[in-house]
Structures are given as structure tokens and as C-alpha cells.
Amino acid sequence: MRLSQMLFVTLREDPAEAEIPSHKLLLRAGYMRRIASGVYAYLPLLLRVLNKISNIVREEMNATGAQECLLPQMQPAELWRESGRWDTYTKAEGIMFSLVDRRQQEMGLGPTHEEVITAIARDMVRSYRQLPLHLYQIQTKFRDEIRPRFGLMRGREFIMKDGYSFHADEGSLRATYQEMYTAYSNILRRCGLEFRAVDADSGAIGGSGSTEFMVLAEAGEDEVLYTEDGTYAANAEKAVSLPTEAVPSTFTQFEKLDTPNTPTIDSLAKFLNCSPTQIVKNVLYQAVFDSGQTVLVLVSLRGDQDVNDVKLTNELTKLAADYGGTTVLTLGVPDEEAQRQWAAKPLPLGYMAPDLGDDYIKGGKDIAPQFLRLIDATATDLKNFVTGSNEVGYHTVGGNWGQQFTRPKQVVDVRQAAAGDRARHDPSQTLQTARGIEIGHIFQLGTKYSEKLGATYTSESGTEQPLVMGCYGVGVSRLAQAAVEQSHDKHGIVWPVAIAPYQVIVVIPNMGDDHQVEAAKAIYKALLAVGVDALLDDRDERAGVKFKDADLIGIPYRIVTGRALGDGKVEVVERATGIVQEVALTDVVALVKGWIDEELLTNR
Ligand code: ATP
Ligand code: MG
Questions:
Q1: Are 42 and 577 within 8 A, CB to CB?
Q2: CATH architecture label of 3-240+433-485
Q3: CATH code of the domain made up of 502-602
Q4: How many angstroms does the Cα of residue 161 sit away from the middle of ligand 2?
Q5: Fewer CB within 10 Å: N-end or C-end of the chain?
Q6: Which protein residue has the closest C-alpha to ligand 1 atom 27?
Q7: What would the pLDDT profile of 17-48 be if each residue is shown by its tens digit?
Q8: How far is the CA of 111 from the centre of ligand 2 (A)?
């Protein structure tokens, strides 16, 4: 491609709309333009990057035997009602764009495709002989994200590769899941990214697991906890660890103490001169289930620990049936306004005990009349502990389960793991923290969707069984920007060779010099002839402007037909290192082609 004929507009200044380097650079270098919040035009340079990523994804997916298809973006509400997700997705979470057509039919724009693909399997898969089966697509997804930001990182319209596999049993699902683990690792390595595969939360669906592929970068929205030995890495939402040992309590007698102004663990520990590990703290949550029931949840855990909302949501989902529901719609700490709706009297906030009376809840149609009391495993073995008294300004000390307090029957693991905790697999290792950008997620779904939609097959023994499913997603457009976030310098983008829009840019410093122009055109043509993606900067611009632009757009190799041409040489500059070499005109094409091939091969 000749730059003089391209829509090529670079900006000197950082655009005000962008906060992180990758977002600024993609806008400045003319890769994209914002059209609406979370909605971007992918310009020619970016499309080439997206296509290169998609092709790597395709090659790796096809190598596993998965087949590409293309599913509709417009999806009927009916299918989503069958899975039970229509109201959650369009109203409660509100992530799905929906519309009503001229026939008064409700439709949604696909945020994901479990419903559609399961309907196809229901229709077409009859027998175990057709299994396993794996279909994938690369397509634009729509999600009305609460906080679209950072450009392509969290868009409302973005490109995803999503794949869905169908199996006769869990064993077959696990085999495909392992293949996907390898395929995803290959994709990220080939794209030239530094990444980590981490244990992820698989939500209420449970199943035997899910893995996220995180590209490590400061701007990442996720926290990854890992050990130096490389054995353990998990999303902080999901991570497990050993809490520090509790310090034995110094209180030997149960009594109620006057503890003014101690509503927080810190203030209380200071006042009583005790360790936070001797305190049982009681945290109040308000959960709303999809049945419409509001439930007040009292979680007791060790004072030095925090509740992990994702883990708590998962525990509550397991109990949803007790409240006539299947999922948790919302979970949060009730504010004053929320408390007014159900509290019979002011709560002793900051001074609550595990036995906070149910009479704090006034009746109501959709409000469970009793607290749901949960205890985290960190608090079950504490002895002579400190806790609230249900009276503002007072705490009790020397309390014990089974004596002054009834221990909640439901023991759960809802504590937040944190950097510095000891690892479960080896307590001599402590958890380290890093920021990550979630690029891919592989997931063992099980029979959740096939049961809801009635997608069954006839097994070898002749019985009708629900299909066992897996799903696998890669954020293609997010990956493109994550690559820039991981690989840039003060001059601009530094694309990994495998996904660079062009591999080489041939720059003519002086368009008025025929010798320079002719030499550059010849090199450009020769590069194309050997299959190198080459760009020719034949614009009527000063050499300095051209060099700056080449650095900004991040092309891996730059060939300059400058002064050395007199000696039959050209200058070759490697973008990543800045290393400059003078190379004989006759050798340059083979040399650069060799470097590119080698680079692409080493990541294979
Ligand atoms: P996140 O937690 O970041 O919202 P998710 O769990 O909703 O991601 P999935 O539904 O598993 O994501 O989608 C698969 C992949 O699609 C993600 O791993 C991510 O790379 C990408 N993705 C998800 N949401 C967006 C978005 N709003 N913009 C760009 N890419 C996205
Ligand atoms: Mg999301």
C-alpha cells in the first residue's frame, strides 16, 4: 500500500477522550475513531491488525477440529426466555440491547450466543455418533456495558471469537477444554503477548472450572494473584489462600464492655488492644433473588478478613431455591434508603452480633422474615472472641460458639484472598499481585443450557440425555489494544510482527530525488513479491515527519532510501530496539524477509 493514497491522519496531541497509553496511541496513529460511547470505527490500519489476529485464532481453532460458522446477531426474545436470561440480561443487568420489531416481536442484539447455538444443537444433534461437536464464529457482539471505557478494552460493540462445544459426557468435555487451553495459549503466544492463564470464577454454574487468559498490564481491570513458583495463579475474585494464623484471645471471661466510638475493626482492636483476628465481625448484605424475594444476609467472619462479593453471590445462588429463585439479581450492603424499606428499628451498625434478632426485620410481602446467617470458615474455630453486642457503643468479649452464640449452620468460604497471604499448595509461598486484561475465557458449562432448552441426544444405550457443553471466548478487538498496552514506547506503538498491520515500511526521505524514489519503489515491489506486507511512504512530506509517523504507527521494520544510497546501501531500522544498520541494496529484501520469518516461527 502507498501511504500517499491512504486515509492517513495522525495527531500530535493526546486526544482528551483517552486515559491509557494504548487508547491514546490507537487514536493518535489513526487506527480508529470514536463514533459513540463504546462504539468505534475500525480504520484500514486497525482492520489489518484485527484480520491478522482473527486469522491466528482461526488457524488455532481449525487445528483442533472446531468448525467456523456465523450466527445471527439479532436474536428472538423467545430463546432467551427459554434459558431464563431475557429479564436478567435486558432488565436486571441491562447488558443486552433489545428492540421491538414492526410485528411487535421482541428481539435482542447478541451479547453472546449460548441460546442460539443450543437451539441449533437441539434441532440438529440426535445421536451420540454426532458428538463431540465444536462450532465457533468471529463476530461483532453488543453489550450495553455500564462503564464503557479505555477504547476497545470495554466497548459496547466489539469483536469476539466465541465457540461452543457439545459432548456426550464430562470426560469428552474435559478433553476439549484441555485442547482449548492449549489453543488459547498458542493464540496469545503467536500474537506476541505476555500472558498468564489463571483460575477463574465460573459463577453459580459451578462445573469443574474455568480459566481466564490474562495479558499482564498495569491498565488491566482484573487483579491476578499468583505464586513465584508458577504453580498457582487465579483471578482475585476466585483466588484461595491460607489466612494468617489467628492470635489466641486474651479474654477468658464473657462480658459486655463499654467500647465507645468503635464501629470499625481497626478502632475496636485499638481500643481493646487486641488483634483483629480475635474479632468476629458481622457484615450485613441485602440480596434480591430472581423470584423477587429480598433476603437480608448476615455474614460472620474473622475481623481481619473481607468478604469477596463474587464468592458470596455464588454461595447465595446455591441457596436460591430456598427463596423460590434460581439466581441472585443484586447483592450489596444496604444503604439507609434500602434499610428503611425493611428495618423495623434502627440497626446497631458497627456493633452487630451474630445473634442480631430477626425482629429487626419488619414484615413485607417480598422480604424474607429472618436473616440468612452465614459463617465464613475463618470464624468457625475462634475461641473467647470479641464481637458486637447489638447495642451501639458496646461489644462483648470472651464469647464462644455453642455457649453465648449459636454458630450459623451454613459454613461458607467467602473470604477475599489478598497479596501476602500464604499459598494453599505451599505455605512458604506468599501470593503476589499483578494487573491483568482478560483476553480469553474458557468455560465448562455442563448441562445448564441444554436442560433449559431441551437439547438432548440419544446415548449409546438408547437413553435421552442432555448435551454436555463448553464455551470459549476470545476478545479479538480487546486483544489488539492489549497488544499496544503491552508494547509501546514514548514514540508510539511497537507491534509484535505477527499482528502488525504492515511488517515493513519503506520510507523515501526526499521525494524530489528520483534515485531515492526509484530505489524505494523497487524494494517495495520486491518485498510484496516475496510475500512481505509492505507500506511505501511516498507522501510529499519532510523526512522527519515520515520517521515520526513510522514510529507512531509501530511498523516493525523501516527501510530508508537515504544518503547511503550513493554507496549502494539503505538504512534498516528495527522499531522495537531502535537499532540502525546499513545494508546493501541487493541484500535488504532477503535479510528483512528472513528476520520476519524467523520472528513468526519462534512464536509458533
Ligand atoms: P469482562 O469481565 O471483562 O466484562 P466477560 O467475562 O464479560 O469479560 P466473556 O463474556 O467471557 O467476558 O467474553 C469473552 C471475551 O470477550 C472476554 O474474555 C473479553 O476478552 C471479551 N470482552 C468481553 N466484554 C468485552 C467488551 N465490553 N469489550 C471488548 N471485549 C470484551
Ligand atoms: Mg463483561
A1: no
A2: 2-Layer Sandwich (3.30)
A3: 3.40.50.800
A4: 14
A5: C
A6: 154
A7: 999 999 999 999 999 999 999 999 999 999 99
A8: 9
